[in-house]
């Protein structure tokens, strides 16, 4: 329900910001909407069978996580010209991270190699937003409000997203029983999704409103 409420909020707030920020808020609303719909699916499956469908969770992530990565590109594009290579590097890192995780959780690949593949994708994303071209454009071209938002988003990807490999580790790499693993994964993944997706959107909303109001006063 928090994801649904966030979706409504982001879509309504589009009318409050200047046109160049509307796409960013739309993407934020789509992220929380897609996540909410998939949680309704997963809830129904869990109520009916007592099982958590891994495939639904990864369908959600394969849609929402690339959209979250696009937000880095969008907020930079709102203030300066950004090479399309930034977009594709973020997408490649995201897909490597997600595909590695899914192969391990679905049993198509041994859990340790899959874990390592996923971590490599995550590390590639962190490099791009901290030390790569995206990070450099932010440092050189963005106004203070955008730099602050970009920095906070980076730390969500660093600290908030660390919750997912922690969940994977406790679920698959500690030798716990399948029942205990499922319970741990559900709690950790659910909390991470709500925190990361809503927080990401609120950061975008904050900078969009700030920049729009500043432009209106000029």
Characterization of this structure:
The chain is mainly α. The chain has a single domain (2-217), classed as Rhopdopsin 7-helix transmembrane proteins, CATH 1.20.1070. Helix content is 85%, strand content 0%. The chain contains 9 helices and no strands. The protein has helices at residues 2-13, 19-49, 54-77, 84-105, 111-130, 133-141, 144-160, 163-172, 178-217. Helix 1 runs antiparallel to helix 2, helix 4 packs antiparallel against helix 5 (111-130) and helix 5 packs antiparallel against helix 8. The mean pLDDT is 87.
List keywords for this structure.
mainly alpha, 218 residues, 0% strand, Rhopdopsin 7-helix transmembrane proteins, globular
Brief summary:
The chain has one domain: Up-down Bundle (Rhopdopsin 7-helix transmembrane proteins). Helices cover 85% and strands 0% of the residues. The chain contains nine helices and no strands.
Instruction: Provide the β-strand percentage band.
Output: under 5%
Question: How many separate domains?
Answer: 1
CATH architecture: Up-down Bundle
Terminal CA distance: 39 Å
Global morphology: globular
Radius of gyration: 18 Å
Spell the H/E element sequence: HHHHHHHHH
Provide a count of the helices: 9
Low-confidence stretches: none
What's the main sheet like? none
Q: What is the helical fraction, as a range of percent?
A: over 70%
The tally of strands reads 0
The overall pLDDT, averaged over residues, is: 87
CATH class: Mainly Alpha
Under CATH, the topology can be stated as: Rhopdopsin 7-helix transmembrane proteins
CATH superfamily: Rhodopsin 7-helix transmembrane proteins
Query: What class do helices, strands and sheet pairing give?
Result: mainly alpha
């Amino acid at each position: 329900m928090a994801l649904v409420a966030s979706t409504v909020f982001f879509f309504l707030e589009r009318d409050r910001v200047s046109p160049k920020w509307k796409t960013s808020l739309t993407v934020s609303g789509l992220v929380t909407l897609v996540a909410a719909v998939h949680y309704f699916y997963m809830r129904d499956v869990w109520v009916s069978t007592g099982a958590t469908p891994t495939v639904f969770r990864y369908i959600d992530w394969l849609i929402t996580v690339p959209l979250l990565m696009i937000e880095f590109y969008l907020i930079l594009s709102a203030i300066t010209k950004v090479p399309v290579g930034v977009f594709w590097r973020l997408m490649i890192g995201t897909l490597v991270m997600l595909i590695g995780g899914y192969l391990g959780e679905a049993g198509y690949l041994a859990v340790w190699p899959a874990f390592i593949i996923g971590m490599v994708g995550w590390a590639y994303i962190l490099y791009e937003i901290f030390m790569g071209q995206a990070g450099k454009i932010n440092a050189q071209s963005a106004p203070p409000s955008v730099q602050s938002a970009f920095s906070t988003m980076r730390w969500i990807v660093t600290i908030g997203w660390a919750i997912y490999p922690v969940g994977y580790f406790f679920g698959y790499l500690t030798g716990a029983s399948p029942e205990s693993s499922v319970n741990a994964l559900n709690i950790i993944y659910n909390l991470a999704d709500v925190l990361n997706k809503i927080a990401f959107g609120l950061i975008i909303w904050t900078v969009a409103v700030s920049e729009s109001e500043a432009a209106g006063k000029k």
